[in-house]
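Protocol step 4 of 6: structure prediction from sequence.
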Amino acid sequence: MSTLRQAGPSQWAEIYLRYSAFESLASQWYPSLFACILPFPTALRVVDLILLEGPSILVRIALAILSILSKRVIAAHTKDDVLQQLLQPPFDELLAPEYVVRVTAKIAVSERTLESMKGKALTSLANQKRHA
């Protein structure tokens, strides 16, 4: 959540307060984001960015997409509505690859934050394997 607060404090504070299960929403949204949700031209541009900057750019791109969709997500009334907005966003808002790139360029995520996120993700995966 701290990464979201850095990226857009006023927008994401409201989402976090309204949907305490935001992390579970993100876990359903993030894995399918780059393969299923983005329009093809934008997905190709994401691949370009990964090749250029490495996989850590994925976090910034996801935050950029959340920023682009923020008004719709904040307007959602329930957790299911939020998930609907994230899993089936309006095609036109993500169609322009260069717009997504410009928004991504404005988002800074420190290496420390990325390492922290990586550690949490690895811990979560280990816990899932233990409970499976």
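Step 5 (inspection) to follow. The CA atoms of residues 25 and 80 lie 9 Å apart.
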